[in-house]
Amino acid sequence: MIRLGLRGRGDLAEWRDAARALLRAGVPPTDVDWRVQDGGADLFGLADDPLPPPDPSLSAPTVPAAFLTLADAVICHRDPSRFALLYRLLWRVQGERALLSIPSDPDVARAETLEKAIRRDAHKMKAFVRFKEMGPPHAGRRRFAAWFEPDNYIVARTSGFFQRRFTDMDWIIVTPKGSAAWDGQHLTLSDEPSQKPDLIDDTDDLWRTYFAHIFNPARLKVQAMQSQMPKKYWKNLPEADLIPDLIASAEDRMRDMIDREATQPKPFHYRIRERE
Amino acid sequence: MAKSLKQRLAILSDAAKYDASCASSGTQKRDSATSGGLGSTEGMGICHAYAPDGRCISLLKILLTNFCLYDCVYCVNRSSSNVERARFTAEEVVWLTLEFYRRNYIEGLFLSSGIIRSSDYTMEQLVRVAKDLRTLHNFRGYIHLKTIPEASPHLIEEAGLYADRLSINIELPTDQGIEQFAPQKHPARIRQSMSDLSLKIEAAKEPTLKTKRRQRFVPGGQSTQMIVGVDGATDATILGSSVDLYSRFRLRRVYYSAFSPIPDASSALPLSRPPLMREHRLYQADWLYRFYGFDVTEITSVRADGNLELDIDPKLAWALANRDRFPVDVNRADKEMLLRVPGLGTSSVPAILSARRHKRLRLDDLERLRVSVRKVRPFIMAEGWSPLRLTDRTDLRELFAPKPKQLSLFG
Ligand code: SF4
């Protein structure tokens, strides 16, 4: 059994280097014990085994492009079994060339489930990051910061989106699973965890006004809202603490609209209609 | 006393919430990486928040003003309504859009307006907002403009240079309905505008002779909205009218909006409002028509009265009315028939087609393809599984229809 510890913070290269060496040495998936490292040693304080030397009798392994795309997403998942799952797939795909096009295969299905979770997590990050302005502009550029709590190690793979969208301002997104910053020239990434900063932005008040008033109390559908905007995100959304009151008052507001007697139009209405 | 920006924002978002659309997808892909500006659009739209009505908030959806010269009976902004009125300047809308965008609350603007002074004056204001965003502020986010009825073609054309999407609301499914409930609007002219716009969109897709480049013109296409439950139109009439609009004017979307109680409603409105479930069923039927190869008449002929079932979805209703077409063999049936199986959809069908090239599929294979086996089981055959003949089952409807008690939730 070969014991290997990886930092496991969404970096595909780290896993790929280890997997390539194992494959070249002909080590079957059942003979590898993948772990998440903490500092130099793993959680139990055990050191890594050295990677075995390549077996010259083996032909060079093949890695289909579709596998790399899949692995690039799966590696970002926090599931501790991701390293082993990917290695098992890589091992099997050497013999079963069509493996990745069989979505009903248990390993493929599992990998696709993880990939889907990563896509969803990244999508929710694009949606729910809220930038707050940090004081006056600096060197002609406005500066913003955001705190976000993703489920998985997705900050690096999602940062390009923010760079392409918020090009003309400086911004930094900090999370417990890494950070990303943009200054107009460079995108700086880190996988170190951050602490929640104290951020206040007065414009949040206008956004909250909008959120409260775009809601139609006659169409309450709390379930539909929560399945798309699960409560775990609420604590970092400036609008979310309005929700309980909006829900609680919805019924009364609707009744009020229905029960209200029709009113008489204002004079300007008659003036307009006379002109017709 | 003059109203503050915040007070006017409250009034003008209150006035905008009855427009169902908040879509920000389906336009060209673009970003600010090379322009150094602000904003991008990348395929899939993003819902930045959800209101407790379950609706996606992806755009700042507001009215420039809720003053209106028209008197559409169903509308909260009609001239005879006593709601509080307010108005933004074009600059204020630009400012709000940019500041909301920078904080990632939204990914664009959906701007509409009541009609003030004249249709052209109002349309000019809307165009100015879009133009300033694009040209003064280098804004590349999504812009949807509602066109103002009777506005001159040159203004609509100018709007199309800056907007991702334009919409022209048909309002009601029948011409009589429009004449009765929106007396200042003219169904023939609404359709004429849609037709003009669709021709311009098509023309812009041809590369010009001089530059060999396609002109950027409303890349997200045009859409419309129909209000459900104001006039007496059946679902068959509504969907028939949608199909007509889709095919004649190549609309991207028809939005259905169940007429909802509004503050200070007109006494000319029907007393009973349609259940929200009706709107949901219309969207499902619309979807079946656009993506599942169904003919609208197949869906609307299930019931004699031309309305969709409320307690079960239209695909299941069709299947139960056409039991002789089932069971469908998941290992042999073609794509078209697989799409007609209740419980299979546009993501599971390609997965089935791909997987079955390599093995004969069993129920547990389907499970791994994230298909709800409980739901599809009665309608399919798979390796090691054949259901009771559907024609022999009398309990199918009960199997799927929710308990009556739950139904009242949507009532
Ligand atoms: S024209 Fe538009 S805003 Fe004015 S009353 Fe009719 S629907 Fe309402």
From TrEMBL, chain A:
In terms of superkingdom, the source organism counts as Bacteria
User: Where do the DUF4130 domain residues begin and end?
Assistant: 81-239
State the organism named in the record: Niveispirillum lacus
Protein name per its UniProtKB record:
DUF4130 domain-containing protein
Q: Which InterPro entries match?
A: DNA_repair_put, DUF4130
What Pfam families does this protein's entry cite? DUF4130
UniProtKB/TrEMBL annotation, chain B:
SUPFAM superfamilies in alphabetical order: Radical SAM enzymes, RuvA domain 2-like
What this protein needs as a cofactor is:
[4Fe-4S] cluster
Task: Give an example GO molecular function.
Answer: iron-sulfur cluster binding
Gene3D superfamilies reported for this sequence: Aldolase class I
The alphabetized UniProt keywords are: Iron, Iron-sulfur, Metal-binding, S-adenosyl-L-methionine
Q: NCBIfam families, from UniProt?
A: rSAM_link_UDG (TIGR03916)
Q: What's the name of the protein?
A: Putative DNA modification/repair radical SAM protein
Q: What's the source species for this entry? A: Niveispirillum lacus
